[in-house]
Amino acid sequence: MSDELKQLEKAHIMATYKRNNLVLARGDGCYVFDEDGKKYLDFVGGIATCTVGHNNPEIVQAITTQAQKLISVSNLYYSEPQILLAQKLSELSGLKKVFFSHGGADANEAAIKVAKKATGKKEFIAFTNAFHGRTTGSLALTWAEAYKEPFLPLAPVVRFAEYNNIDSLKAVINDQTAAVIVEPIQGEAGVIVPNADFLAAVRAVCSDRHVLMIVDEVQTGIGRTGTFFAYQHEIIQPDIVTAAKGLANGVPIGVCLSDYELEAGEHGSTLGGNCLSAAAALATINYIQNHKLMQNAEEVGDYLMERLEGLGKTIALIQEVRGRGLMIGIALNAPEASRIVETTMKNGLLCNAATATVIRLLPPLIATKQQADECLEILEKAMQS
Ligand code: PLP
Which pLDDT does position 1 carry in this prediction? Predict the structure, then answer.
Protein backbone atom coordinates (compact mmCIF):
# COMPACT_ATOMS: atom_id res chain seq x y z
CA MET A 1 0.00 0.00 0.00
CA SER A 2 2.68 2.49 0.87
CA ASP A 3 4.26 2.56 -2.64
CA GLU A 4 0.82 3.11 -4.10
CA LEU A 5 0.21 5.94 -1.63
CA LYS A 6 3.55 7.54 -2.50
CA GLN A 7 2.67 7.44 -6.21
CA LEU A 8 -0.70 9.07 -5.47
CA GLU A 9 1.04 11.76 -3.42
CA LYS A 10 3.42 12.49 -6.28
CA ALA A 11 0.55 12.69 -8.74
CA HIS A 12 -1.72 14.91 -6.67
CA ILE A 13 0.17 16.97 -4.07
CA MET A 14 2.35 19.94 -5.02
CA ALA A 15 5.98 19.07 -4.47
CA THR A 16 6.56 21.63 -1.70
CA TYR A 17 7.85 19.10 0.85
CA LYS A 18 10.91 16.86 0.92
CA ARG A 19 9.42 13.89 2.72
CA ASN A 20 11.14 11.10 4.59
CA ASN A 21 10.50 7.67 3.14
CA LEU A 22 7.95 6.70 5.75
CA VAL A 23 4.14 6.43 5.84
CA LEU A 24 2.90 6.94 9.39
CA ALA A 25 -0.40 5.36 10.31
CA ARG A 26 -0.93 5.64 14.07
CA GLY A 27 0.39 7.28 17.20
CA ASP A 28 0.44 6.63 20.93
CA GLY A 29 2.07 9.04 23.41
CA CYS A 30 5.67 9.63 22.30
CA TYR A 31 5.52 6.85 19.70
CA VAL A 32 4.26 6.59 16.12
CA PHE A 33 3.79 3.45 14.03
CA ASP A 34 4.14 2.86 10.30
CA GLU A 35 1.75 0.81 8.20
CA ASP A 36 3.54 -2.42 9.05
CA GLY A 37 3.27 -1.69 12.76
CA LYS A 38 6.95 -0.73 13.16
CA LYS A 39 7.35 1.54 16.20
CA TYR A 40 9.27 4.85 16.21
CA LEU A 41 10.12 7.12 19.13
CA ASP A 42 8.83 10.46 17.84
CA PHE A 43 11.24 13.24 18.83
CA VAL A 44 10.04 15.44 15.94
CA GLY A 45 6.60 15.67 17.52
CA GLY A 46 5.01 17.04 14.34
CA ILE A 47 7.62 19.86 14.46
CA ALA A 48 6.64 20.99 17.96
CA THR A 49 2.92 20.47 17.42
CA CYS A 50 2.38 17.26 19.39
CA THR A 51 2.52 18.85 22.82
CA VAL A 52 0.76 16.31 25.02
CA GLY A 53 1.35 13.12 23.04
CA HIS A 54 -0.26 11.32 20.13
CA ASN A 55 -3.75 9.98 20.65
CA ASN A 56 -3.90 11.58 24.10
CA PRO A 57 -7.22 10.27 25.53
CA GLU A 58 -8.18 13.62 27.13
CA ILE A 59 -7.66 15.53 23.88
CA VAL A 60 -9.40 12.84 21.82
CA GLN A 61 -12.34 13.02 24.24
CA ALA A 62 -12.51 16.83 24.05
CA ILE A 63 -12.38 16.77 20.24
CA THR A 64 -14.99 13.98 20.02
CA THR A 65 -17.38 15.68 22.44
CA GLN A 66 -17.06 19.00 20.59
CA ALA A 67 -17.37 17.37 17.14
CA GLN A 68 -20.57 15.66 18.24
CA LYS A 69 -21.98 19.06 19.29
CA LEU A 70 -20.63 21.56 16.73
CA ILE A 71 -17.45 21.81 14.63
CA SER A 72 -17.64 25.31 13.19
CA VAL A 73 -20.11 28.16 12.90
CA SER A 74 -17.84 30.82 11.27
CA ASN A 75 -17.11 34.02 13.12
CA LEU A 76 -20.53 35.45 12.37
CA TYR A 77 -21.69 33.99 15.69
CA TYR A 78 -20.44 33.65 19.28
CA SER A 79 -18.91 30.35 20.24
CA GLU A 80 -18.21 29.35 23.83
CA PRO A 81 -14.96 27.33 23.38
CA GLN A 82 -13.40 30.23 21.44
CA ILE A 83 -14.30 32.79 24.12
CA LEU A 84 -13.09 30.56 26.98
CA LEU A 85 -9.83 29.93 25.12
CA ALA A 86 -9.32 33.65 24.54
CA GLN A 87 -9.81 34.29 28.27
CA LYS A 88 -7.30 31.55 29.15
CA LEU A 89 -4.66 32.83 26.69
CA SER A 90 -5.17 36.34 27.97
CA GLU A 91 -4.43 35.17 31.54
CA LEU A 92 -1.37 33.26 30.34
CA SER A 93 0.11 36.11 28.30
CA GLY A 94 -0.95 39.20 30.24
CA LEU A 95 -2.34 40.58 26.97
CA LYS A 96 -6.02 41.44 26.77
CA LYS A 97 -7.17 40.40 23.32
CA VAL A 98 -6.80 37.57 20.82
CA PHE A 99 -7.17 37.21 17.07
CA PHE A 100 -7.50 33.58 15.99
CA SER A 101 -5.84 32.28 12.82
CA HIS A 102 -5.07 28.78 11.50
CA GLY A 103 -1.33 28.64 12.05
CA GLY A 104 1.88 30.57 12.67
CA ALA A 105 2.33 32.49 9.42
CA ASP A 106 -1.15 33.98 9.50
CA ALA A 107 -0.80 34.78 13.22
CA ASN A 108 2.20 36.89 12.19
CA GLU A 109 0.16 38.47 9.36
CA ALA A 110 -2.31 39.59 12.01
CA ALA A 111 0.58 40.95 14.12
CA ILE A 112 1.77 43.04 11.15
CA LYS A 113 -1.69 44.59 10.80
CA VAL A 114 -2.10 45.19 14.54
CA ALA A 115 1.29 46.94 14.71
CA LYS A 116 0.59 49.12 11.66
CA LYS A 117 -2.81 50.11 13.01
CA ALA A 118 -1.55 50.79 16.56
CA THR A 119 1.44 52.90 15.54
CA GLY A 120 0.39 54.43 12.22
CA LYS A 121 3.87 53.41 10.99
CA LYS A 122 4.71 50.97 8.22
CA GLU A 123 8.18 49.52 8.67
CA PHE A 124 9.36 46.44 10.58
CA ILE A 125 12.61 45.14 11.98
CA ALA A 126 13.35 41.42 12.05
CA PHE A 127 16.60 39.58 12.80
CA THR A 128 19.21 37.70 10.81
CA ASN A 129 18.29 34.01 10.38
CA ALA A 130 14.71 34.69 11.55
CA PHE A 131 11.85 32.49 10.34
CA HIS A 132 8.32 33.85 10.65
CA GLY A 133 6.38 31.93 7.98
CA ARG A 134 5.71 31.61 4.27
CA THR A 135 2.77 33.90 3.48
CA THR A 136 4.05 36.98 1.70
CA GLY A 137 3.88 39.25 4.76
CA SER A 138 5.48 36.75 7.15
CA LEU A 139 7.95 35.80 4.41
CA ALA A 140 9.09 39.42 4.22
CA LEU A 141 10.00 39.13 7.94
CA THR A 142 11.93 35.91 7.26
CA TRP A 143 15.70 36.21 6.76
CA ALA A 144 16.85 33.60 4.20
CA GLU A 145 16.77 34.88 0.58
CA ALA A 146 16.12 31.36 -0.72
CA TYR A 147 12.62 31.42 0.78
CA LYS A 148 11.84 34.88 -0.62
CA GLU A 149 13.58 35.40 -3.95
CA PRO A 150 11.11 33.47 -6.20
CA PHE A 151 8.17 35.51 -4.84
CA LEU A 152 9.47 39.08 -4.91
CA PRO A 153 8.22 41.74 -4.42
CA LEU A 154 6.90 41.08 -0.90
CA ALA A 155 4.76 43.67 0.84
CA PRO A 156 6.11 45.14 4.13
CA VAL A 157 9.30 47.17 4.39
CA VAL A 158 11.62 45.14 6.63
CA ARG A 159 15.11 45.95 7.89
CA PHE A 160 17.20 43.23 9.48
CA ALA A 161 19.28 43.58 12.63
CA GLU A 162 21.81 41.00 13.76
CA TYR A 163 20.28 38.46 16.16
CA ASN A 164 21.69 38.69 19.66
CA ASN A 165 23.34 42.06 18.92
CA ILE A 166 21.48 44.95 20.52
CA ASP A 167 23.71 47.66 18.97
CA SER A 168 22.75 46.34 15.56
CA LEU A 169 19.06 46.81 16.48
CA LYS A 170 19.73 50.35 17.71
CA ALA A 171 21.44 51.12 14.40
CA VAL A 172 18.51 50.12 12.15
CA ILE A 173 15.52 51.34 14.17
CA ASN A 174 14.08 54.61 12.81
CA ASP A 175 11.06 56.93 12.98
CA GLN A 176 9.13 54.74 10.55
CA THR A 177 9.59 51.52 12.57
CA ALA A 178 6.24 50.16 13.72
CA ALA A 179 7.56 47.03 15.44
CA VAL A 180 10.47 44.70 16.04
CA ILE A 181 9.69 40.98 15.72
CA VAL A 182 11.85 38.43 17.49
CA GLU A 183 11.94 34.69 18.22
CA PRO A 184 13.03 33.90 21.81
CA ILE A 185 14.99 30.96 20.35
CA GLN A 186 15.44 30.69 16.56
CA GLY A 187 14.08 27.23 15.74
CA GLU A 188 14.30 26.92 11.97
CA ALA A 189 17.74 28.54 11.94
CA GLY A 190 19.04 25.61 14.01
CA VAL A 191 17.94 26.26 17.62
CA ILE A 192 19.93 29.47 18.12
CA VAL A 193 19.68 30.59 21.76
CA PRO A 194 20.44 34.28 22.40
CA ASN A 195 22.23 35.65 25.49
CA ALA A 196 20.10 35.62 28.65
CA ASP A 197 19.46 39.38 28.61
CA PHE A 198 18.83 39.81 24.86
CA LEU A 199 15.01 39.87 24.94
CA ALA A 200 15.00 42.31 27.86
CA ALA A 201 17.40 44.54 25.93
CA VAL A 202 15.13 44.40 22.84
CA ARG A 203 12.19 45.33 25.10
CA ALA A 204 14.11 48.31 26.50
CA VAL A 205 15.09 49.60 23.04
CA CYS A 206 11.50 49.20 21.79
CA SER A 207 10.12 51.11 24.79
CA ASP A 208 12.72 53.90 24.44
CA ARG A 209 11.98 54.33 20.74
CA HIS A 210 8.15 53.95 21.05
CA VAL A 211 8.20 50.89 18.84
CA LEU A 212 6.14 47.74 19.50
CA MET A 213 7.80 44.45 20.44
CA ILE A 214 6.35 41.35 18.78
CA VAL A 215 7.50 38.01 20.17
CA ASP A 216 7.00 35.08 17.80
CA GLU A 217 6.32 32.08 20.06
CA VAL A 218 5.07 29.85 17.24
CA GLN A 219 7.78 27.24 17.89
CA THR A 220 8.91 28.11 21.42
CA GLY A 221 5.48 28.58 23.03
CA ILE A 222 2.95 26.33 24.81
CA GLY A 223 5.25 25.13 27.56
CA ARG A 224 8.05 23.73 25.40
CA THR A 225 10.93 25.61 27.04
CA GLY A 226 9.65 25.25 30.64
CA THR A 227 7.43 28.34 30.80
CA PHE A 228 4.16 28.76 28.88
CA PHE A 229 5.82 31.34 26.60
CA ALA A 230 9.60 31.35 26.29
CA TYR A 231 9.83 35.13 26.85
CA GLN A 232 8.53 34.44 30.38
CA HIS A 233 12.00 33.25 31.39
CA GLU A 234 12.69 37.00 31.56
CA ILE A 235 10.63 39.67 33.28
CA ILE A 236 9.31 41.39 30.19
CA GLN A 237 5.93 42.08 28.63
CA PRO A 238 5.82 42.11 24.81
CA ASP A 239 3.19 44.25 23.05
CA ILE A 240 2.20 41.43 20.70
CA VAL A 241 2.70 37.67 21.01
CA THR A 242 2.02 35.12 18.29
CA ALA A 243 1.66 31.36 18.84
CA ALA A 244 0.39 28.31 16.95
CA LYS A 245 1.95 24.85 16.38
CA GLY A 246 1.44 23.02 19.72
CA LEU A 247 -1.52 25.01 21.01
CA ALA A 248 -4.17 22.40 20.13
CA ASN A 249 -1.90 19.31 20.04
CA GLY A 250 -1.92 19.27 16.23
CA VAL A 251 -5.38 20.61 15.42
CA PRO A 252 -4.72 23.73 13.27
CA ILE A 253 -4.92 27.00 15.20
CA GLY A 254 -2.89 30.19 15.59
CA VAL A 255 -3.20 33.26 17.78
CA CYS A 256 -2.09 36.87 17.79
CA LEU A 257 -2.35 38.38 21.29
CA SER A 258 -2.20 42.08 22.09
CA ASP A 259 -3.72 44.91 24.09
CA TYR A 260 -4.16 46.74 20.79
CA GLU A 261 -7.31 46.25 18.74
CA LEU A 262 -8.38 45.69 15.19
CA GLU A 263 -11.93 46.62 14.31
CA ALA A 264 -14.76 44.94 12.40
CA GLY A 265 -13.74 44.28 8.82
CA GLU A 266 -10.05 45.11 9.35
CA HIS A 267 -9.11 41.45 9.59
CA GLY A 268 -10.88 38.10 9.63
CA SER A 269 -10.82 34.37 9.14
CA THR A 270 -13.74 32.02 8.47
CA LEU A 271 -12.39 29.04 10.38
CA GLY A 272 -9.95 30.79 12.72
CA GLY A 273 -10.58 29.68 16.33
CA ASN A 274 -13.51 27.47 15.37
CA CYS A 275 -15.29 25.38 18.02
CA LEU A 276 -13.28 22.23 17.33
CA SER A 277 -9.78 23.77 17.40
CA ALA A 278 -10.67 25.92 20.43
CA ALA A 279 -11.94 22.89 22.36
CA ALA A 280 -8.74 20.99 21.48
CA ALA A 281 -6.61 23.95 22.60
CA LEU A 282 -8.45 24.30 25.92
CA ALA A 283 -7.99 20.59 26.60
CA THR A 284 -4.29 20.81 25.65
CA ILE A 285 -3.63 23.76 27.99
CA ASN A 286 -5.51 22.04 30.83
CA TYR A 287 -3.49 18.87 30.30
CA ILE A 288 -0.18 20.79 30.33
CA GLN A 289 -1.14 22.53 33.56
CA ASN A 290 -2.70 19.53 35.34
CA HIS A 291 0.22 17.23 34.54
CA LYS A 292 2.95 19.83 35.25
CA LEU A 293 4.36 19.35 31.75
CA MET A 294 6.29 22.64 31.76
CA GLN A 295 8.26 21.35 34.72
CA ASN A 296 8.71 18.01 32.95
CA ALA A 297 9.95 19.77 29.79
CA GLU A 298 12.57 21.57 31.86
CA GLU A 299 13.69 18.46 33.78
CA VAL A 300 13.79 16.02 30.85
CA GLY A 301 15.28 18.72 28.61
CA ASP A 302 18.09 19.44 31.08
CA TYR A 303 18.74 15.71 31.40
CA LEU A 304 18.85 15.23 27.60
CA MET A 305 21.16 18.19 27.10
CA GLU A 306 23.49 17.11 29.88
CA ARG A 307 23.75 13.60 28.46
CA LEU A 308 24.22 14.94 24.92
CA GLU A 309 27.02 17.18 26.18
CA GLY A 310 28.54 14.05 27.72
CA LEU A 311 28.37 12.33 24.32
CA GLY A 312 30.04 15.40 22.82
CA LYS A 313 33.16 14.58 24.82
CA THR A 314 33.65 11.31 22.97
CA ILE A 315 31.93 11.93 19.61
CA ALA A 316 34.03 14.38 17.61
CA LEU A 317 31.13 15.12 15.22
CA ILE A 318 29.22 16.97 17.97
CA GLN A 319 30.25 20.61 18.05
CA GLU A 320 27.70 22.05 20.47
CA VAL A 321 24.45 21.17 22.23
CA ARG A 322 22.02 24.06 22.70
CA GLY A 323 18.41 24.76 23.55
CA ARG A 324 16.02 25.11 26.42
CA GLY A 325 13.53 22.58 27.80
CA LEU A 326 12.41 20.21 25.06
CA MET A 327 13.67 22.35 22.17
CA ILE A 328 17.17 21.06 21.55
CA GLY A 329 19.69 21.44 18.74
CA ILE A 330 22.77 19.27 18.28
CA ALA A 331 25.20 21.28 16.16
CA LEU A 332 27.62 19.13 14.16
CA ASN A 333 30.94 20.19 12.74
CA ALA A 334 30.09 18.62 9.34
CA PRO A 335 26.93 18.66 7.16
CA GLU A 336 25.86 15.22 8.36
CA ALA A 337 22.46 16.01 9.92
CA SER A 338 20.35 14.45 7.12
CA ARG A 339 22.44 11.28 7.05
CA ILE A 340 22.07 10.85 10.81
CA VAL A 341 18.32 11.54 10.72
CA GLU A 342 17.94 8.83 8.03
CA THR A 343 19.98 6.36 10.07
CA THR A 344 18.06 6.96 13.30
CA MET A 345 14.79 6.61 11.39
CA LYS A 346 15.81 3.13 10.25
CA ASN A 347 16.60 2.33 13.90
CA GLY A 348 13.30 3.57 15.30
CA LEU A 349 13.90 7.22 16.23
CA LEU A 350 12.41 10.23 14.45
CA CYS A 351 14.42 13.45 14.75
CA ASN A 352 14.84 16.26 12.25
CA ALA A 353 17.59 18.11 10.40
CA ALA A 354 16.84 21.80 11.07
CA THR A 355 19.83 22.69 8.87
CA ALA A 356 22.57 20.66 7.17
CA THR A 357 24.59 20.79 10.40
CA VAL A 358 21.91 20.82 13.14
CA ILE A 359 19.82 17.90 14.38
CA ARG A 360 16.72 19.16 16.19
CA LEU A 361 14.73 17.40 18.93
CA LEU A 362 11.17 18.60 19.66
CA PRO A 363 9.52 15.71 21.51
CA PRO A 364 6.08 15.83 23.12
CA LEU A 365 6.27 17.46 26.57
CA ILE A 366 5.24 14.13 28.17
CA ALA A 367 8.62 12.58 27.22
CA THR A 368 10.28 10.72 30.10
CA LYS A 369 13.95 10.26 31.04
CA GLN A 370 13.68 6.63 29.89
CA GLN A 371 12.55 7.84 26.46
CA ALA A 372 15.40 10.36 26.49
CA ASP A 373 17.77 7.42 27.12
CA GLU A 374 16.17 5.48 24.26
CA CYS A 375 16.69 8.48 21.96
CA LEU A 376 20.32 8.89 23.07
CA GLU A 377 21.15 5.24 22.49
CA ILE A 378 19.91 5.36 18.87
CA LEU A 379 21.47 8.77 18.22
CA GLU A 380 24.82 7.75 19.64
CA LYS A 381 25.02 4.70 17.36
CA ALA A 382 24.08 6.79 14.32
CA MET A 383 26.69 9.43 15.10
CA GLN A 384 29.38 6.83 15.60
CA SER A 385 28.63 5.08 12.29
N1 PLP B 1 7.17 31.42 13.20
C2 PLP B 1 8.07 30.52 13.66
C3 PLP B 1 9.05 30.91 14.73
C4 PLP B 1 8.11 29.21 13.13
O5 PLP B 1 9.01 28.34 13.57
C6 PLP B 1 7.17 28.88 12.12
C7 PLP B 1 7.17 27.53 11.53
O8 PLP B 1 8.09 26.77 11.66
C9 PLP B 1 6.25 29.85 11.69
C10 PLP B 1 6.27 31.11 12.26
C11 PLP B 1 5.22 29.51 10.65
O12 PLP B 1 4.24 28.70 11.20
P13 PLP B 1 3.21 27.87 10.28
O14 PLP B 1 4.03 26.82 9.59
O15 PLP B 1 2.22 27.32 11.25
O16 PLP B 1 2.61 28.85 9.33
Answer: 67
